[in-house]
Queue: 3 jobs
Job 1
Amino acid sequence: MTAENGLNSFHERNDIRLGLVGAGSVAGLYVEAAAGLPELAITAVCDVRREAAQALAAPLDARVYDDHRAMFAAGNLDAVVITSPHSLHTPMAEDAAAAGLHVLMEKPMATTVADCRRMIKVCADSGVRLAIGNLQRFVPAVRQAAEILRSGQLGRPLLITERRAVRYDPESRPAWFFDPELAGGGIMMNIGGHSIDKAQVLTGEKVVAVNARIWRRPGIAVETEASGVMELSGDIQLTFSITSTGLPPQDETEVVCENGALRLSHTGGLWMFRDGQAVHLKDRTGHDEIVTAFRDQLVDFTGSETPSVTGDYGLSVVAAVQAVYDSAADRTLQRTEY
Ligand SMILES: NC(=O)c1ccc[n+]([C@@H]2O[C@H](COP(=O)([O-])OP(=O)(O)OC[C@H]3O[C@@H](n4cnc5c(N)ncnc54)[C@H](O)[C@@H]3O)[C@@H](O)[C@H]2O)c1
């Protein structure tokens, strides 16, 4: 299908042909997620590392490319999932839109707010849909926590404490993540974006101001640690600490509300605290939960009338990350720029 067929007909199709740009680690999750969806097929895979594209494409019987423009020009595709290094996101979205292909863009949407705006405009002008891979709302435990908060049973959210620790050094992930030009930033851009997304999804609010600091470890060109305070609309405060020392990894979120609290934990699952009682609502399910999130994201992208994670939403996350960098550089409180 090309854009002339209109956005609305896309979600009614049951033979959607997807192309993958980038055949690295996250692309493997899309392959796993798509395997459970008979209505769509991955029919082409592109990577500058042709052997990586070949390895992913072979069991799918998909075509292999090492140039995304050649893949787009060959036709036979309805949509693309772009999982390339961050600074390539905007030019690749422009190429996809020019070819009439719908775009599911991995997070972070782009490395600057200006690039996010360009991507939104070019997709709108070309009549293709744009969805962003900020997938926290599709993670089952986050979804359940957001529903509880939305129900009002705990009262208004007041403050969030967010703690992430992951290994973040050149031995732990591909080299481009440590190249400021390609990655657009370090741990805050890559991991911190999930924290911002999660806080926004849980509360239904947006980050409006940031006071933060970042640090780089010797010999690494991007920041490896970030901490600070964010204010969300609705007068909610988020305190975050995202560090690179984490082995074992940590991923803990606490939301304190007027009448109770929720805690989401990578190891402990979902807990609710109310009236002096602690109730365990959900175990963590690890890899299965991640694949479920990717699958539901694909269903939302291809199967709903309008994707849930719009370009404007992706921009809001990039704007909050940018505000962290501006705040750290100027040592001032920064308002987010929408
Ligand atoms: N949603 C999530 O939970 C999640 C998890 C991991 C990564 N990501 C995001 O997914 C994207 C990819 O991350 P990754 O961990 O898979 O990285 P990766 O390095 O494993 O994969 C990226 C791939 O892109 C390829 N590539 C580079 N330049 C290219 C070009 N010009 N054309 C085609 N392919 C090209 C690389 O060779 C590599 O195979 C990033 O945006 C990252 O932030 C999201």
Job 2
Amino acid sequence: MIRPIEHDPMFLAQKSSAASKADRQVGQDLLDTFQAHRQNCIGMAANMIGQLKAIIVIDFVPQPLLMYNPQIIQHADPYETSEGCLSLEGKRPTTRFRQITVVFYDQDFNKRILKLSDLYAEIVQHEVDHINGVLI
Ligand SMILES: [Zn+2]
């Protein structure tokens, strides 16, 4: 189900709790809402649809990638950039890493480890900030 986008910075500043198999509907809603905003959005976290669960989705080839409980376990090669956010107005400067390794659970709750670089890495870092209550 497509959910409205949350814009309240007080709400978005809260930390999300770990997701479980019981939160699959939240994951599906996140995917549906992401698809509806795909023209101007490359990633989304569950708190952006009002759910404080550690679930994110990123634009990925061949299809959007849903991640439950993503954790960045390695990062390298920092750079300065600025990012916009569907939940917030404007752009803000931030430091990101060109290479990351992320551990997460996929839609079937299988544990996966992925090495990502450049834009994919940047999106994951932005969305993981969201689940930690960090607004960029
Ligand atoms: Zn954002």
Job 3
Amino acid sequence: MTNILFVTSSPRGAASHSSRVAEQVVERLQAAAPGSMVVRRDLNREPLPHLGETLLGAFFSSPDAHSEEQRDLVALSDKLVDEVFAADVIVIAAAMINFTIPSTLKTWLDYIARSGKTFHYGEKGPEGLVKGKHVILVEAKGGIYSEGPMKIHDYQQPYLRFILGFMGMTDVEVVGVEGVAFGPEAAEKSLAAAGIRADEAARMVHEARAAA
Ligand SMILES: Cc1cc2nc3c(=O)[nH]c(=O)nc-3n(C[C@H](O)[C@H](O)[C@H](O)COP(=O)(O)O)c2cc1C
């Protein structure tokens, strides 16, 4: 049995390629390990309030001094952190929006990147505290970034890899859909390749878990 945390974030809702391919990943993981539990976080339908003064103030003050709003926001952040720790596999679907991730996904990261919980600074610098997770990252992009002149302008995958790694999640399989803005033929080709890669990533993660 696998505990899966499934995070979707595309503002394109039902039209989202990343969400659809990620759904396939989750289905394959469930098929490989019957009885698996899936916790879904649809950040597009249920966006989190942006990180602001109220929550930030709560992170850096004593719980005794918190307002009711601060208590609610900290409880929400704690719940999201708990979901991450409870998961064996985290499947994240990310659209590329203005060269990076959707703001809803950024906010989720703002809620789970918690000093003392998901990372800490020790004598040797920062250390991620979320260990032993498998992450499958499904990304969708209008342009081509895997090669060519736009490669250096991919602020989506490098950022996600870095922040996840910062919290200790270094085992990341990427399933990429790209070039969907280059016409239906290019989109179809990329989606077909992503479908194969989605199956492969789910199989690899399942086998790695079974071997552990
Ligand atoms: C508001 C908006 C901004 C976008 N910005 C970019 C971009 O900066 N670079 C790019 O390659 N594609 C961009 N796209 C295209 C999306 O990355 C593409 O539609 C992709 O399929 C989105 O993922 P999704 O299918 O999961 O929604 C943008 C799309 C939208 C709607």
